[in-house]
Design goal:
Elements lengths: L1 H26 L3 E4 L5 E4 L12 E6 L5 E6 L5 E6 L5 E5 L1
Antiparallel strand pairs: 1-2, 3-4, 4-5, 5-6
Length: about 90
């Protein structure tokens, strides 16, 4: 039983290490691409992704730069607050 647990832990540790190495290696490969609107984006996307609804229409940064508010006009309209520094979910109002 103990050998099975050790092998499972070592497999999980290897998977985490490989994932971290791939993330580090691909972070330097991101390139800026110009959109038809004239704005630039990074591809592949950098950072943390957060689900803010089916049709996000606008995003506003708070005056102190700590939070971003996203308005969603999709099937379920909502207003979502995100921590701008970490990308983490703060709250949601339907």
């Amino acid at each position: 039983m103990q050998s099975h647990v050790r092998s499972s832990l070592s497999k999980a540790g290897c998977l985490c290490l490989v994932s971290a190495l791939l993330l580090t290696a691909t972070a330097g490969m991101a390139q800026s691409r110009r959109l038809v609107t004239g704005k630039s984006i990074f591809w592949p996307p950098l950072g943390v992704r957060q689900n803010v609804g089916s049709l996000p229409m606008n995003i506003v940064l708070s005056p102190d730069g700590n939070y971003a508010l996203v308005s969603d006009m999709g099937f379920d309209q909502s207003l979502t607050a995100i921590n701008a520094r970490t990308g983490g979910f703060v709250s949601n109002v339907d």
